[in-house]
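Batch job 17 of 40 flagged for manual review because the log was empty.
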Amino acid sequence: MTEYVDVSEGEAITRDGVIKLYGPEGFEGMRKAGRLAAEVLDDLTEKVMPGVNTAELDDFIRDRFLAAGATPATLGYRGYTHSSCISINHVVCHGIPGDKALKEGDIVNIDPTPLLNGYHGDTSRMFLVGEVPIKARRLVEVTYECLMLGIEQAKPGNHMGDVANAIQRHAEKHRYGVVRDFCGHGVGLLFHDAPEVVHVGRPGTGPELRPGMIFTIEPMINIGKPDVKMLDDGWTAVTRDRSLSAQFEHSIGITETGCEIFTLSPKGYHHPPYGV
């Protein structure tokens, strides 16, 4: 049976499988952390281009977070040594920044999470590097549509299965594969918390959505089959059939009437091409 607990300001919480229900202070904390994450992604728009390496982008993210009084939540998390995850082409998620340079035609997901005043602004966004083939552009478009269709179902009285089913139906209508191995999660004062937010499912199943819940929705959609494999570094997940993969992610909070998206782009850069 699903358990819920109200979070009181200043109260210590643990990753115990119980779904946390936040009050106004939690929502305000998430607005600030989410806005910072979105602002940094906005600023990256001019830097994502052929020839730039992913370590440079990661350095930029770290410096921007520190300058704003935040720390990168991924830095030191379970031994991870970078300030973001940057996943290119067939990398599904958790790509490690390094000396690899972006090239014309790449699609890339950038996933930064600032920890600001105790709250985690978890989000990710796809970028197109130069001129991108139409097949790849279409994957990115549909993946964004999947995210937003899932968010439309995020309202009180619905269930996680309603969110998942909206995502799955739209992706599979386009003959894409929905990754099962990774999912969204509760967020807020804890980086990864209950509930799990899967992206395939049946309507009316899973935990009921209640006001105060804060979690991410982050579908990973493959042009090919949904299967993934882990590389030897222990972090990087890639498509098993080497097909392209795309992902978008927002942190949201359930309100009395629907949901609030904490990580919307202040510049309106919701999906690429940005600034057009």
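Reviewer: the log was empty due to a logging misconfiguration, but the result itself is present. The chain has four helices and 19 strands. Unflagging and moving on to job 18.
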